[in-house]
């Protein structure tokens, strides 16, 4: 991850502008003088840099706060370089040189979650596209079809965005997000195919697997009639786990293949074939159209809110089907910042809530996905900061 280390880490008077970067404010972590967040704007994008004093090393480290990062690495490095140059006499080391083209690519094909709030066109979806071989080949071979690729590994995203530009492909959107949550936002019966090729098995943490009964239901909802959900895996345990979930359903059509040769061989499949590993395929076919799923959940705040001191705010609220966890609290002269995670236990979302002294609070980077669990947690958070009421919470 891009970062710099320094003996001291000073900031210019804020707000401060350097080129396309605006450094808006620094907010100190409540109860921890060693950490702070610096809000940075780049064009229409916003993210946090985290500054932390490391007592054992007696130095400061500055890097992007991963919970707010959804931009090419080169743009993050550019912000860090501004601060590093201001502290040139105090720098110990950094890794901010030599941006590659893919790191600086702010691609029109990299989309944010709000671009899908009113999405209504037939498409195919690949979850965890990795090197992008399969996704890009499908897009090239089917120019009249629209494709969405979802991935959480930043280097893979940067690599595929660069290939989209080089190959002149125009029918692909890329998004960095949790696929399990993302499916809830998509319209019903418009998807023609969903591909999950060689997902991480997560044998020791099965709750992190993409494939689940809930995921299967959402996949069948967004698929058009006769659309397919395709799992391809070298892990027999994962394959049997997925098949067991499918067989528990009352009314589904599926197809199983073993060592079926595909037109496009992924990087991982190349490796498994050289090792003579078995490759398992599971296809589940959508048998009917589903009714449209409506999302009428608003994430709004009043123009002015009341926020008690952080030590009086309940940190956890746990209910049967949702939770709210306030991780930490930051303050500056003009802003308060809450770092929260909330929503479904198996599919949590993390956001920063910016609360200005004057003006309406808002979530950094846009509202969370409008799932039932997240909306319930948001309502509880709203009540907490608006009225200062005591609420029932867990230990």
Textual characterization of the structure:
By secondary structure, the chain is α+β, with helices and mostly antiparallel strands. It folds into 3 domains: 3-102; 107-285, Rossmann fold, CATH 3.40.50; 310-387, no CATH class. The protein is 23% helix and 31% strand. It contains 9 helices and 20 strands. It has helices spanning 73-86, 101-104, 133-141, 154-167, 179-182, 213-222, 236-247, 267-274, 372-387, and strands at residues 3-6, 16-18, 21-29, 35-42, 45-54, 59-64, 91-94, 110-111, 123-127, 146-150, 172-175, 191-197, 223-233, 253-258, 280-285, 316-318, 323-331, 335-343, 348-356, 362-363. Strands 1, 2, 3, 4, 5, 6, 7, 16, 17, 18, 19 and 20 form a 12-stranded antiparallel β-sheet that branches. It has an 8-stranded mixed β-sheet with strand order 8-11-10-9-12-13-15-14, sandwiched between helices. The chain is globular, with a radius of gyration of 23 Å. The two termini are 35 Å apart. The model is unreliable at 388-395 (pLDDT under 50).
The H-and-E topology, N to C, reads as EEEEEEHEHEEHEHEHEHEHEHEEEEEEH
Distance between the first and last residues' Cα: 35 Å
Name the helicity range. Answer: 10-25%
Q: Look at the helices and sheets and give the structural class.
A: alpha+beta
Per DSSP E runs of 2 or more residues, the count of β-strands stands at 20
CATH class of the largest domain: Alpha Beta
Radius of gyration: 23 Å
Q: Return residue spans where pLDDT drops below 50 for at least 5 consecutive residues.
A: 388-395
């Amino acid at each position: 991850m891009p970062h710099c280390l320094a003996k001291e880490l000073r900031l210019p008077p804020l707000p401060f502008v350097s080129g396309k970067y605006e450094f808006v404010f620094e907010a100190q972590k409540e109860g921890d003088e060693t950490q702070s967040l610096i809000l940075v704007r780049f064009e229409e994008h916003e993210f946090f840099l985290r500054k932390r004093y490391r007592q054992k090393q007696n130095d400061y480290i500055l890097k992007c706060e991963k919970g707010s990062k959804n931009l090419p690495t080169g743009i993050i490095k550019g912000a860090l370089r501004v601060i590093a140059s201001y502290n040139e006499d105090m720098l110990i080391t950094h890794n901010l040189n030599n941006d590659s083209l893919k790191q600086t690519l702010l691609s029109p094909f990299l989309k944010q979650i709000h671009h899908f709030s009113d999405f209504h066109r037939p498409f195919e979806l690949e979850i965890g596209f990795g090197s992008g071989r399969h996704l890009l080949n499908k897009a090239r071979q089917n120019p009249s079809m629209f494709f969405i690729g979802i991935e959480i590994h930043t280097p893979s995203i940067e690599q595929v965005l660069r290939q989209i530009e080089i190959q002149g492909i125009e029918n692909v959107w890329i998004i960095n997000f949790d696929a399990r949550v993302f499916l809830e936002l998509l319209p019903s019966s418009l998807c023609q195919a969903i591909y999950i090729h060689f997902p991480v098995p997560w044998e020791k943490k099965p709750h992190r697997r993409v494939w689940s009964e809930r995921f299967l239901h959402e996949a069948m909802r967004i698929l058009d009639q006769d659309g397919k959900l395709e799992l391809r895996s070298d892990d027999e345990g994962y394959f049997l786990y997925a098949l067991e979930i499918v067989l528990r359903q009352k009314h589904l059509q599926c197809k199983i293949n073993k060592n079926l040769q595909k037109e496009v061989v992924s990087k991982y499949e190349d490796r498994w074939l050289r090792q003579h590993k078995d490759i398992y395929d599971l296809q589940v076919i959508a048998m009917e159209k589903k009714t449209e799923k409506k999302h009428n959940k608003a994430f709004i705040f009043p123009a002015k809110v009341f926020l008690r001191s952080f030590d009086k705010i309940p940190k956890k609220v746990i209910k049967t089907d949702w939770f709210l966890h306030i991780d930490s609290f930051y303050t500056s002269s003009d802003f308060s910042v809450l770092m929260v995670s909330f929503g479904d236990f198996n599919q949590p979302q993390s956001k920063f809530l910016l609360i200005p002294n004057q003006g309406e609070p808002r979530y950094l980077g846009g509202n969370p996905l409008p799932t039932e669990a997240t909306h319930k947690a948001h309502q509880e958070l709203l009540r907490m900061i608006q009225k200062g009421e005591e609420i029932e919470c867990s230990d």
